[in-house]
Amino acid sequence: MRKYMPRIADKLLEKSLRTSGAVLIEGPKWCGKTSTALEMSKSHVFMQDPDQRLNNMRIADTKPSLLLRGKTPRLIDEWQLAPILWDSVRHEVDMRGSEDGTISPPTVISYLNALQRIFVTEDLEAWNPSIRSKTPLRSSPKRHFIDPSIACAALGINGKKLLSDFNTFSYLFESLCIRDLRIYADYLDGKVYHYRDKTNLECDAIIVLRDGRWGAIEVKMGAKEFDSAAKNLFELKERIYIQKMSEPSFLMILTGTDIGYTRKDGVHIVPIGCLKW
Fold this sequence. Notes:
By secondary structure, the chain is α/β, with parallel strands linked by helices. The chain has 2 domains: 8-104; 121-274, 3-Layer(aba) Sandwich (Trna Endonuclease, Chain: A, domain 1). The protein has helices spanning 8-19, 33-40, 53-62, 84-96, 149-155, 159-163, 166-187, 226-239, and strands at residues 22-24, 43-46, 74-77, 102-104, 121-124, 142-145, 191-196, 202-208, 214-220, 250-255, 261-262, 268-271. A 6-stranded mixed beta sheet has the order 7-8-9-10-12-11, sandwiched between helices. A 4-stranded parallel beta sheet has the order 1-4-3-2, sandwiched between helices. Helix 3 links the parallel strand 2 and strand 3 (74-77). Helix 1 crosses helix 2 (33-40). The longest helix has 22 residues, at 166-187.
């Protein structure tokens, strides 16, 4: 059996179980939803178990509450095979109060739904801050792959091909960075956005915490782009109406280079491998 590697989702799940009677875990296939849930659960039922599937389905059709019996938190894996379990869990939570927990990590079955529905892509919403000028802001989201390797597999691209096509590489690197930023921001109860206005001033990522603190991030693969990225960050900072919003907590260039440091202008250069929680 593989050794379980602790992940940020563990603490988020633990916190959710302390405050909710049941927790729904969503995500792409094979991302570790069940493994994470098993680490936290004290009992489980695998609805897709070939040896028990028919029996589990009969129980679900007859008396679904039987499948909820067991020590809590109780994991119900692939609950969507018997949708009645959704209502059963809600009813059980109402009866118990919020003292115990039930974990349900579903995997989307139908690949005929939209890419976002099956967790292949995820939209990055546009940031709508208070700005000094009357420049209209663009509100369209940007779409990123949840895992950039999906694009590589679909296009038949390996590492060697990526190194010969830096245009494609840069797009995939940005998706990789956005994915990691979302993970760390989520742990801090924050959100990640992008910025773009009708003068075409853009910023790859804006992290906003619930208390209003925010930081701006440009994603650049190489050092030759640092000066233009820093100029972009300061131009964005100047457009923000500070009387209504706070100064940015940081300005950052997230990069594929090896060395992290702070420039004389205060912009932080952070290699993607230095992000930690």
